[in-house]
Amino acid sequence: MKHRWADRLSLERLAPWLVPLGLVVLWEVAARSGWIEQRVLPAPTQVAVAFWDTVSSGMLFHHVGISFQRALLGLLAGGGLGFALGVLNGTSRHAELLLDSALQMFRNVPHLAVIPMVILWFGIDETAKVFLVAIGTLFPVYLNTFHGIRTVDHGLIEMARVNGLGRAAVFWRVVLPGAMPSVLVGLRYALGIMWLTLIVAETIAASSGIGYMTMNAREFLQTDVVVLGILVYALLGKAADVVTKSLEHRMLAWHPAYHSARSAGG
Amino acid sequence: MGNSTSPALKRVEVTQEPVSSDVAPVVDADAALGRPLSLDGLHVAFGERKVLNGLTLDIPARQFVAVVGRSGVGKSTLMRLIVGLDKPGAGEVRIDGVPVNGLQPSVRLLFQDARLLPWQTVLNNVGIARRPGWREASLAALGDVGLVDRQSDWPAVLSGGQRQRVALARVLVSHPSILLLDEPFGALDALTRSDMHALLERLWLQHGFTTLLITHDVSEAVLLADRVVVIRDGQITYDVPITIPRPRRRSDAAIVALQSKILEQV
Asked: Are B30 and B143 in contact (CB under 8 A)?
């Protein structure tokens, strides 16, 4: 009985990997046998070799490090500003009246459309990329923070006031935690946009970073490095998602959707 | 949030604040806490509709008054005026002869729904105001309502009756002089409700707060109160003392007789 249960568990764990694994094998066979031309798509093993080469030369870490730094700085600046504006406009009707329509106008400009402008302003140095990531991540965080704060249960705010909490205490203990699920949704959106923006910005105007690495490889028809760059982006995106998910589990442990245990202690 | 509450019983002795000697005693030495409440010619109108029309009522200290009326006669509006969430169009609320202006630290309101913060544990909900010594006071209040063993649970896992008991503990923590109850047991099943009646009566006898219970359940009013008043057309139209000795029984002939007498007036 116990054995059968264990078997089923391991099978259940393996199942989601079967299809991707099969595809990789198919890809390898197709590339090796010449069905797929080398300049169209290299074999997975060639990508693995490229991975090893770039790792051992230190090139991969160099580029990934720079991309990561840009992503983080842009997210901190854009997400931070978006959060602050969301809190400001969410808590103050006056601020909303003054700022919201302007923000909505800016929001509707596709942020990648300003790339030519950004290059004129900042050239192709770091500021340009960080700036682009910042405006890309600002709006999802802003919108979701604003929405989260506005939809906090008014009954809870009233209850807190009746129980003698001042304005600051109401904000920290009721409004902000109540808005948190929505803020985190905004963060997840922002992370997606963060990588997207960075890829575009680095392929258009950069002299380092993963985007530059793949564009440079394209010039020399190194399709293996191009595929490697794409995979690295995929991994970084996935890693960012895992981090936010664990953040959600920590910060929203109270939420019935995240209950892993009956008790909150410990 | 929940990190410090796990073995909380053992941690009670830990002094949270430097001042622990002059914190108000947790167990009751304040049986004479109740203060007189007078409502003098209260008028409230929402647009053309007059909700309260010169409502006047004097309640001596420590009296338990039940307010009965059909839905929409302004019972909840009355509560909001007394607690200081809203202001009357005309007239005054006085506590101890002093007119009320704004939220009152000596008045606490138990809402129809428990309004617990879902992101705080039971203990932290009870001590929401975080006054010095709140941990000990909250544990004592939880003991009063029989929920010490649920102190580190999230509110989401509690039953309706337990949630309302936590809310009751939350108002007890601040030792109110006047306790307002806005149909607090309306959403509970009959058995739980009768448990809550016994609990409320015991706490009222023990703490001695002036109590105003809003209800549409006439039997509840007669069972618990020293005095029942009926609101109609924005005024007190019927005012009857209940002198039946406690503990009272629902099936008592005198209770049943009073009940039907009051029902005629509603």
From this structure: no
Q: How many CB atoms lie within 10 A of CB B197?
A: 17
Q: For residue A110, give its domain range.
A: 59-251
Number of domains in chain B: 1
- A170-173 long-range contacts (CB < 8 A, ≥24 apart) are A171/A91, A173/B117, A173/B120, A173/B128
> Do B144 and B169 touch, CB atoms closer than 8 A?
yes
Is the Cβ pair B8, A265 closer than 8 Å?
yes
A48 within domain boundaries: no
In this structure, what CATH number is given to the domain that contains residue A196? 1.10.3720.10
Q: Which residues form the domain of B129?
A: 116-175
Q: How far is B196 from chain A (nearest CA, A)?
A: 21
For the stretch A28-83, pLDDT in tens is: 999 888 888 878 889 999 999 999 999 999 999 999 999 999 999 999 999 999 99
ipTM value, please give it: 0.82
- pTM of the model as a whole: 0.80
| Residue at A113 is within a domain | yes
Confirm or reject contact between B108 and chain A (CB < 8 A): yes
Rounded to the nearest 5°, which phi and psi values hold at B182?
-100, 90
